[in-house]
Design a protein that fits this description.
The complex is a heterodimer of chains A (432) and B (248). With 432 residues, chain A is α+β, with helices and mostly antiparallel strands. Chain A is built from twelve helices and 22 strands. In chain A, the strands form six sheets. Chain A has an eight-stranded antiparallel sheet with strand order 17-13-15-14-20-21-19-22, with helices on both faces. In chain A, β6 and β7 form a beta hairpin. Chain B is an alpha/beta fold and 248 residues long. Chain B has a seven-stranded parallel sheet with strand order 3-2-1-4-5-6-7, with helices on both faces. In chain B, β6, α7 and β7 form a beta-alpha-beta unit. Chain B is globular. The chains are: A alpha+beta (432), B alpha/beta (248). The interface between A and B is small, with 12 and 11 residues.
Chain lengths: 432, 248
Amino acid sequence: MKVYRSWGRLAARAGQLFMPSDRHAELPAPERHWLPIGQGRSYGDVGLNPDGGAIETARLDRLIGFNAATGLLRCESGVTLDAILAFAVPRGWFLPVTPGTRFASVGGAIANDVHGKNHHAVGSFGCHINGFELLRSDGRRLWCSPAENADWFGASIGGLGLTGLITWVEMRLRPIANPYLWVDSRRFGNLEEFFALDAEGQRRHEYTVAWLDCLARGSARGRGVYYGGDHAPAQRDLPVHRSRQRSVPFTPPLSLINRLSLSAFNTLYYRKPLPSGPALVHYEPYFYPLDGLLQWNRIYGPRGFYQYQCVVPTADAAQSLAELLERIARSGQGSFLAVLKSFGDKPSPGWLSFPRPGYTLALDFPNRGAATRDLFRDLDAVVRAAGGALYPAKDACMDATLFRHGYPAWERFSAYIDPAFSSGLWRRVNPG
Amino acid sequence: MRNVLIFGATSRIAEETARLLVARGCRVFLVGRNPQKLDAVLADLRTRAAEPGHIHAEAADLDQIERHPALIEAAATALGGLDTVLIAHGTLPDQRACEASVAKTLAEIHTNALSVISLATLIANRFAAQNAGTLAVIGSVAGDRGRQSNYVYGSAKGMVDLFLQGLRNRMSRHGVAVVTIKPGFVDTPMTAAFDKKGPLWAQPATVAAGILAAMGSGRDIVYLPWFWRFILLIIRSIPERIFKRLSL
């Protein structure tokens, strides 16, 4: 019996373990049901299968082929985004879309249809997949692409690992001249200023994101720092980058994030001096600031934390975001990791894809039990009223109603779930 | 290390070692039993290699001793010479099944000891003739003492250990290194049935890094990770009249 932990440190016991190292291997019959598990970087229970079986994909870590002229990469689904970068960056290629951690697996990135700071420009991860092989529990192998088994393609992108095991993938990388980006950072005093900066930012930059001070209230509500980034064109003199990794070696007995530490941090961070012009930044700290502190999730103590990430549609976004921020600030709960970003209108092929035109807000909350869940219900009401959705990769609390409203294709999707696959999240949002 | 021949290339430890070798720009010839698995390893290494043409593979069942000379010759030809060999193939016997069957026991000893000894003999002769080379073989801590839970495996590995010790003695005047790798518990497909908790279990990538270092420095007997040397020191020192009563 192995205990799996999600990134939010929620725990689940898996009864049965299958860890294929051969992508041609068949799936054994499960005692109850299977769920593919990659690197465990999802926060809630989308990647947990309590009392069920786990198909660990970490050994499906082989590259299959790479076309250095076109950037087409074929690899097994257990390959991590980090491994792809280690391979591709020295060859002048980069991930087309990257989430906030590079330690996720390709299979996990597809199953959650992850998005990055460049969503407004290029869409989500699923938009850059040429195809993948899906292995079903009945032994069938389907090549899924927009042209072949297109329905399986659409069901499995963002399909939460429930349609079967993705064994290998063909994806398109994008070219870069060097591992650096030019990053422009600007402070903004409130939400209105954010929207103004973002309107311009989306036009000027490939990558945009804003950090928010989630405790600010009144006229300062929604203040923060806006970052616009672009891959640096070829240039002669590049700084030397030293990859530094520290680790949180143990879980402290209580959360280090509390009201005092949070407001102190937020005030300092908001007022932190910013470079006067664009700065040349290596991709590692720009895209993966948290990966630099391994096991950072431990600082929330043994009770762990919840992430709340929602999307609200463009219409009335200003009002919805203001309301969300107001409720969060009032509660006094929150984290230093508050992120606000615009989503563009490039559609994903995934039926249950989370990104849609509008704005996404993501925060961490130390797990304070009932108080945290009450706040979430409060926020859910705002999201629901706005016609938005929560992100399953982060969620541990949403109820069936909110899920179904946010993902109207859920019923169509259900028909594609493999009868031998299940997950904690799916059982939670589909009770009975 | 420039031209490396790997037997058992589809094993996890060997695959991880091969990745490290390819990252260093070595030419590699892979031998594995299952053609499909071997192809997957070959494709992965070729994708990573600066020169895909430097990576070769041939599928073979190493229990077929008569094929050994041809395999070694094919590798030397394809690589343009041979300076390093890693013997990493093997199986984990079902001890209980072997206890009930002489045929099974002998078959396991054939795979884990005799086929290894055949390859080692041929390679040692080749390396002696060129007065250079490194032969590394994956043994096991299980070969240090026979115990009731795995002595079919242990005795095969023990035979290899003793054979290599003699070979090392003979090869030293030729400047040829014979390296015996003794991993402890490693989390691989071969040990899938074991409950793998605890700090004693190592990852294949860690063992691979140790193998690479050992091959490069031409050390004699290498326990991986290092602490197994001391665990086995203790195990070996237990008097037989006590050990025979234990359930290790």
